[in-house]
Each structure stands twice: as structure tokens, then as C-alpha cells.
Amino acid sequence: MGPSIIKEKVKQETSEDPPCPLASSRVTSGLLKIAHLLEVGGVCGIPTDTVYALAASCKNPKAIEKIYNIKDRPAEKPICICISSVEQLVSAKPPFSPLLWEFMKNVYPGGISCIVRKGDWLFNLGVGPAIDRVGTRDSIMIRVPDHTVTCHLCDITGPLAITSANPSGESDSTHHSMVINRLGHKIQGVLCDGESNELVASTVVNCLQIDEGIISIVREGCVPAIKVQQIFDRLKNTMA
């Protein structure tokens, strides 16, 4: 009768080596493996509460440079930072107004990225020597994902510089297999977590004029722009 067709298929699938190290998000050893790769200057694909991201340690400027090369990302497009909690941000003591603090506490954690003023407080956050490679000269975009795995990883490594895990101009990666197939040959590892919770990236909110009563939506993503505006209007009226 010959060998089992099923066994033959499994043999074919497992005989091909992946293009980069893979780790499971379901086990602590997987998180530690990716954390080590990031801390020694690697770039890794990681899950978030939206789509998959490429991550590099904010302590390593060269690793962030790698992200631009891996994605063919234009140099003028800034990269944001990802942290594990609002409490981590509070402890860095940025000079934010009460209104900005309330807004961030109401939208974090979740699928919203806030653009705020850059400053030396980023060193307190643990950004380190890569400060000039994240954000723009005057502003920085901050993500606090509503995703246990991503937050645990940030707790281990400190802040991460992240951007969507896709070649520049192409669609987002919504499964770890997409990251492996598209970028696995260019990166140092992938933290595998299956399907993304969302099919689109975060909503980006410019908060630079928040104290003048103004926010603007730079990119509408998984959180509708009208919902963001409703949150802001409610807080603004409450604090007036």
C-alpha cells in the first residue's frame, strides 16, 4: 500500500527549515528567546492588539536603522514606541497637562497611538541612545497595546520601537506566517501568536494641540475617529 499520505505531508512540512528563529507566545521560554534577540540588537516580528509589528530595542539605534532597511521604509517616516502600561509612562514624569493625562488614561491600553511632545523624560522611560531614531525631532508616537504578550515582552526589554511588519506600501500582516513568508529572511526572529485580533493598524491621534482644545486624526485605524472624538469631547467638557 505504500506510506501514509498524511505522514508524507507532515514530513514535507517539517523538513523545511524556517528562514529565522521562531518562538511561541504561549510559553515563557518563547518570550525570553525573543527578548534576548531584541536586546542583542535583533529585529523581530511580534504580535500586538492590532496587526503584527517589527520591533527593535529602544536601547539600540542600529537595530532601529535595520527596521528601515528591512521594510524599505522612507527615512522621513517616524517610528513609534511601544510600552507596557500607562503607569510606566507616569513614572517617567513627562510634563503632560491634566487633560492629556486623562485622555491617555481613557484610550490606553488599546488600538490608539498618541503623538505627544518629545523630551528628556524619554530617558526616564528607558528609551536610551536610540532617542534620535524614534519619532521626529519634536514629537513621539506612543502605543500601549491591549495585548498581554506584547506588554510582557516590553516589561522584559523596556520600550520597543515598532512599525507594522510589512514591506513599505504593502498590506499589514495579520498572522505570524505572513511575517515569516514576507520578511523572515531579513529579521532575527518571530514571536508566533496566530491570527491578529484586528485586521487594521491603530488609529493615530495628534495630541500636540490638546491644551488648545484640539486633537486631530492622522490615521483612522481599528478605533473609529468619531469614537476618539467623543472620548475627547467628554473629557474636555468634564474638565472645563
UniProtKB/TrEMBL annotation:
Enzyme class: transferase
Gene symbol of the encoding locus: LOC106514378
Record localization: Cytoplasm
EC code: 2.7.7.87
Entry annotated with the keyword RNA-binding: no
Organism expressing this protein natively: Austrofundulus limnaeus
Pfam entry (one): Sua5_yciO_yrdC
GO molecular function: double-stranded RNA binding; L-threonylcarbamoyladenylate synthase; tRNA binding
A Gene Ontology biological process term: regulation of translational fidelity
Protein's name in the database: Threonylcarbamoyl-AMP synthase
